Amino acid sequence: MRKSYRVKTESDFQRVFKSGNSVANRAFVIYKIDKIENKHFRVGISVGKKVGHTAVVRNRLKRYIRAVLSEIKPVIEPQIDFLVIARPYARDFKMADVRKNLLHALFLANIIEEIPDEVEED
Fold first, then answer.
1. Which of 4, 7, 85, 106 could be 111's S-S partner, Cβ–Cβ 3.0 to 4.6 Å?
2. Which domains, from first to last, does the chain contain?
3. What is the pLDDT of residues 12-67, one digit of tens each?
4. What is the pLDDT of residues 97-119, one digit of tens each?
């Protein structure tokens, strides 16, 4: 994902945390806030040390999340900022598990209108 699609600054993260709505499933927590002036959505990804003690584990999970978001970019509501926070349950997920659980969480948060059928299983 291009950098223009990312929530980058601490103040942006805090604004979404404090005034955004949250939804969760076992693997991910989604915070969402509407921003009318956005041309496209922006996303922040957080994977803490409780999820994986090594940077390798945390970075792999972040890559998987970014890959899923890139695939479904056309169906994501354009005028929002949202955060994806991984929970320890997602520690050992493969790509298919991340896709399935992330799509479910995004659907619960009304970021996508329906879960795409082409979710692959490994």
1. 106
2. 3-108 (3.30.230.10)
3. 888 888 888 899 999 999 999 987 777 888 999 999 999 989 999 999 999 999 99
4. 999 999 999 999 999 988 877 65
pTM over 0.85: yes
Strands (E), the chain: 21-24, 28-34, 42-46, 80-86
C-alpha distances (whole Å) from 113 to each of 41, 106, 108, 116 are 15, 9, 9, 9
CB atoms within 10 A of CB 110: 13
C-alpha count within 13 angstroms, C-beta hemisphere, residue 116: 18
Q: Taking Cα atoms as reference points, which of 81, 90, 15 lies closest to residue 50?
A: 90
Query: What does DSSP assign to residue 85?
Result: E
